Each structure stands twice: as C-alpha cells, then as structure tokens.
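Hi W.,

Here's what went into the run:
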Amino acid sequence: MTLLDTPRRRAPEARPTQILDAAFHEFGERGLAGARLDDIAKRAQVAKGTIYLYFPNKEALFREMVHATIVSALVEEEASLAGLASETAEAQLRRLGQGWWTFLRTERVQALQRLVALELGQFPDLMQFYADEVIARGRRLVSGIIARGVERGEFREVDPQIAARMFSSIWMSHSTWCARREFFKTLGSDEQVLDDMLEFYLYALRP
Amino acid sequence: MTLLDTPRRRAPEARPTQILDAAFHEFGERGLAGARLDDIAKRAQVAKGTIYLYFPNKEALFREMVHATIVSALVEEEASLAGLASETAEAQLRRLGQGWWTFLRTERVQALQRLVALELGQFPDLMQFYADEVIARGRRLVSGIIARGVERGEFREVDPQIAARMFSSIWMSHSTWCARREFFKTLGSDEQVLDDMLEFYLYALRP
Amino acid sequence: MTLLDTPRRRAPEARPTQILDAAFHEFGERGLAGARLDDIAKRAQVAKGTIYLYFPNKEALFREMVHATIVSALVEEEASLAGLASETAEAQLRRLGQGWWTFLRTERVQALQRLVALELGQFPDLMQFYADEVIARGRRLVSGIIARGVERGEFREVDPQIAARMFSSIWMSHSTWCARREFFKTLGSDEQVLDDMLEFYLYALRP
Amino acid sequence: MTLLDTPRRRAPEARPTQILDAAFHEFGERGLAGARLDDIAKRAQVAKGTIYLYFPNKEALFREMVHATIVSALVEEEASLAGLASETAEAQLRRLGQGWWTFLRTERVQALQRLVALELGQFPDLMQFYADEVIARGRRLVSGIIARGVERGEFREVDPQIAARMFSSIWMSHSTWCARREFFKTLGSDEQVLDDMLEFYLYALRP
DNA sequence: CATGAATGAGAATTCATTCAT
DNA sequence: AATGAATGAATTCTCATTCAT
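Here's what came out:
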C-alpha cells in the first residue's frame, strides 16, 4: 500500500502519473526538444522502455503532460479559491487576488507559463485549451465579481471584461517576476507584492 | 583591432548579420535545443560550416544572438520613445504607453519574451542583462515620469517604483496576448487594447 | 518421460500447437527477424511469457516451427498422394501431378518455400532436412514412377533422376506463381495450369 | 581518380552506389528486418550517418536497392543475351538457355530471388516491377523464339506462352538449386545441368 | 502453468561539428 | 573565407526476455 516496494510491479495504475510527473519536471525545465527521455525515465524511476508502454512517443508524452498539467492546475485553482461566498465585491476580489497569488506562484503554473510561451506555438490545440480553460476561465471569475461590484455601486462603471484583463495581466506578470526573484532585486516580499497589486488595482476601480 | 579584442571572434559589425538574424528566427520559434543549425544556415543563405567561422558553437551563437537582440531591441525602444519632451506627466505617459505598445508588439521583443521564459533560465547572465537593460530600464523611464507627476500633483501619491511595475506588467502581458490573438478572441484591435490600458492605468493614478 | 527426453522441453504433442501455428503465420509472412513475438502471442491468444514456457527463445521457436511445418507437410503430402496403385506409369504420374499440385499450393508449403529461400541459409540443418525430406523424397517418388515407365516402354529412355528434377522444377515454380497470381495476370486457372504442365511434361517423356 | 583516397571525400558521386552495393549484400543475406544499418555502413566504408544523406530511412534504402538491383540485373541480362541473331529457333533457344543460365546463377539474381520470395510481399509495387520486367520480359523473349520455331515447323504446335513458362520454371528452379548445391548432392556440374535442361526441353518441343 | 508489466540491450535516426576542397 | 559532404556521439525507439504475481 505504501510507496516502498521492489522495483518491478509497484502500484500499477500509478505508472502513468509517475511518468507524467517526471516529464513535467524535465520538459518544464528544458522544453520539448531539450528534455531527454532518459532523464525522464530516471526521474520516474522507471526503465526507458516503460515510457513507451504508456505513450507512443516523446511528443505524445509532452502533449499529455501539458494537458494533465493544465487539468490539475485547474483543480488546484479550485482549491485556492474555495469559499469566495457572499460578501462585498471588494472582499471577494481581495480573496480572489490572494487565492490566485498562491495559485500562480505554484511550480505547476510557473512551468506551464514557460512552456506556453515557447513550445505551445507548435501545439495550437493545447494553446487553445490553456487559453480557454486557464486564462479565459480565470478572467470570467474576475469579471463576474466586478460586474456585481459595478451593479452594486461598489466599483466605478468599468467594462468588467476589460477590468478582468487588467487584473490577470498584473497578477500573471508579477507571478513570473517573483518566481525569478534573483533577477529582480527591487521586488519586495511576495506578501508585499500582493498588497501592492491589490491596493493599486482596487484604487483603479473606486468610483 | 587584433583577433581577440573582445570575447567574440570578430568585431560584431563585420560578422554576418544574416546569421544572427536567421538564428533569431529559428531560436525564437523553437528554442535553443529545438532549432537546427541546418535550418539557420538555410535561412541565412549560408553553408552550415560558415556559421562556425563566426561562432564557436551552437550555444555561443544562441548567446550572441540573444545579446544582439536585446541590444537592438533597446535601440528600437529608443526610436519608439523619441521626443517625450516637456509636457504634462499624463501626456508623457500616454506617449510612452503608445511607444511601448509599438515596441513590445515587435517580433523582436515577442521572440525575446518567449526565450526569456523558457531558455534563459540556463543563462543567468543573459537573463540578468535582459532584466536590467530591458525591464528595469523601461521601468525607470516610467517611474521617472510618475515621480514627476506625483510631485506636480498630477497623480495621486503612489510609490513610483510600484506604479511603474504595474504599468509594465499590464503592457507586457497584453502584448503577448495580442501577439497570439488567434487564441484570445475577445481582444479588441491593438489600438482598442492600448486605449483600454491607458484609460485604466491613468484612472488608477488620478488623485 | 522425464523433462529431457528430447531436445525440446516437452513432448511435442502437449505443446500448444496454437503457438507453432501462430509462429508459422507470422514467420511465414515476415521472416525470422521481421516477426514479432508480441504478434505471435496475440495470434496464438496466449500471453507473451507463455511462449517462453515452451520454447527457450525466438530462434528455437522458429526452428521448431520450421521442423514441425516440414513434418506436417509430409503428412499432408502423404494424404494428397494416397492410392497411386497399380496402373500405367502415365496414369500414376497424372495422379501424382495432381496430388502435388494440391499439396504445393497449400499455404503450408508456400510459406515454407518463402522461408527456405531467405532464412534457411542460416539454418543448414533445417535446409538439409527440407532438401532431403521434402524435395529429394518427392523426387524419388517421381523418379520411381518414371523408371517403371521407361522399363515398361511407356516412356522414352530418360534418366529418371533428371526427369524427376524437371518435373519438380516445373511444379514448384508454377505453384509459387499461382500463389502470387495478382502479379502474373497471364496465368490461367489453377486447373488450366495443371493441364498445361501435365500435357507438356508427358509429351517430353513420350518415346 | 583511382579508388585509393583518404577517408573523407572519395569519388563523391559514387557514394550512393557504394551504399546500395553494401545494402544489396546485407539485405540479400538477412532480409529487410535482419540486416543492420551498422553493418551496411561498415561494408560501404561509410559512417552510419552518411547513409541518411542519401536515403531517408532503412525501408527506402531497401526499396531503392531492390529497384536498382532489378535494373542492373536487366542490364546484365542484356549482356548475357547479346547476339541471338538469325539462326534456327533451336539454336537461338540453346543460346538463350545458355545466356540465362549464366544470368540466373549470378549473385545478383540469386539474391533477388531470395528477397522476392519473402520480403517483396510487403512491397507490391516492387514485386510487380520484378514480375513485369524480369520474369514476364524474359518469358516474352522465349515465347517469341518459340512462336517463330512453331511457324517454321521446327517445333511442334505448342502455345508459345505456355512453353515459355515451362522454360522459365525449369531454368529458375534449377538455378536456385545449383546455388545451394551443398544441399542437393545429386546435382551434376552446372554445365551438366544446363545440358540436361536443354535436352529435356528441346525434346518436348520436337514435332 | 499463465500472465503481462517491466526491463535494457540494441537498432534506427538525428544533428552539432569537422575538414578536405 | 566559404562550402557541404562526412562523421559519430547522443538520442529516440523497439522488442526479446524476465519475473513478481
């Protein structure tokens, strides 16, 4: 039941996940072409051939890994965002901003961002999937809250769509900068940055 | 003057720009590992061996290409930003926002962004160079204008550093989205998007 | 009775004929190197590991399959040739020609021919076995009949050995052509071809 | 000009031929699946990668090799058959029988026969090419001579098509047997066998 | 006995790098 | 300087064989 067994025949249905996990790390670090199947196998503690039991080739492994990563990112997002319930729009936005901040700084999402930037040009369907499910979906959440806030007079009259785009642009950029903190010395702590963003953004919505 | 006056083998201006250009396209599209010297040579209309007359190996070519691209991006930026002269801070910001919008949507910068995301993790010096010269420098420009605006009472009391970060986060994210317009159907025209950003951002600075 | 009474691991009749059968099909189609154990297992409706319960390795399976195929071909031949009894030599030859025609066009024999051509170079003992048991034996049958025919004055004075070789050369070649009929459009029906061969051959023996 | 140069850059246009030649030997011996590119390269005195400069993959190399072999076999046939001119049909047939006997026992043709038997099932176009160009064409030559012989009353009234088939069946089978002489001890010398065939065959055509 | 997931050696293929011309 | 054919090390992929269940 636990994780310590002999080499052959471990939890059998765990194999694909194990490999996808290793693939996530290697591809996320070095990209599709740069990652070596050998390293993925090593990291997954699996023989090279085993990978081919579950995925027909490197590209397919890459695709499935990206897909799985997106899906599991959505699940994580769900978790980060649990309980936004019935309060003022501002409070909701603060909660959302906080939840997203946690979510976006996740290794999962950071790696995705990197892959999306460079490799997903060659996989339009995955790019679309990411754009729809991660970006657009997140944005819908925000624009919903903002629309309510505008309705209730909490916020000034903005186009919720546009405002939501502003929100996600700020959050996403900052998350990648904070992930590479060593190159951006002027950045404060992650909490500080979150405060900066919230303060700035909410000000822009005040009537 | 001698053969070894700089780390590079020859004065950069003598070195076939075609090669760097071709390298820029191929690397920018497929990354360091994914690009093939063969394709670079073909695109540069040069024999494969010729590349080795100017660059000791693939990685060096990549590095120099990134370096050159950053440098020439800065030059382009300069051009996009010419004549910000003595007006109100808001007018300056509008001009800057416009200039940057042109600059960021440039193929040059878009490719850089892609490479920065995935490949530059392996080249900290280049990453730092990019962070300092492109991002931080741009931000300094913005923060300078904002500081003046705050001083002059045009803008509310914000930390110019922070506000500048907000500015660049919004501009950079939107530029990559617009570059991949096919995946983000809800985006308006580039001009529309620029207006949205300016309107939103300036509102957030109003006293 | 014990585990090692013959070179093979178990008495042949107990060993799953399905495996040999499947092996026959796959090897016969793609040769020793080209056939995949995986496909053989699938065709035999047996797990891959099961094959190794009965045969130490791929090559041994191939050898035993060829051996078994030759043996069972001989049995089939016996059947095709039953009852050549006491008639004129010509009648006997006609009967034999007919029986062989049936026998040679058998999938069993056709596959054997294919394997003999390419793969049996590496297995001299099998080749010899085939040459002796199938070819030479068949020829002996023919030469016996011819010798009798010559003795009885039915046929002209030919060397029965040589005439028998002519007989088998004609029959064997035509059988492989008919088996690949799609490439030899000028061929008549199998019956027609048999008639052609008999007529031609018997004419050549007439005094 | 001669064949002794340094490893790199030998007669450049000879490369493909060199490789095809090596491929012919390896494939002819072990078949498509059994041959190793490594061995082909070694035999061609070329690096493994060089093969891929001229052929996209193993299968393509195989196909081109078979095609080239068939073509060059036809040329050899031409040579073996030069000068069949204006004599009696019987004399022509004797000459042809002799020429073919030389041609068929050629390593080139023997290897082809082996490949045709087993591997060409997967390459119907090559099989057809072989059937048309080698077999049918040879047969046409024979049937032409026979038709003339029948017309002139030299031969009995046979269907030239059928008689030609008989001719080639006898010649082809005997050539493969003689090529594997070690397994067919009763065979006389090649010359003896040719005499046997001619004598037998011509008898069958006598009026 | 039977299974089939797992293995890893070996074969095919790619591509950065070299070098004779 | 420039070329591009040739190289071979590195990588992907295949498949005979093993072994825990």
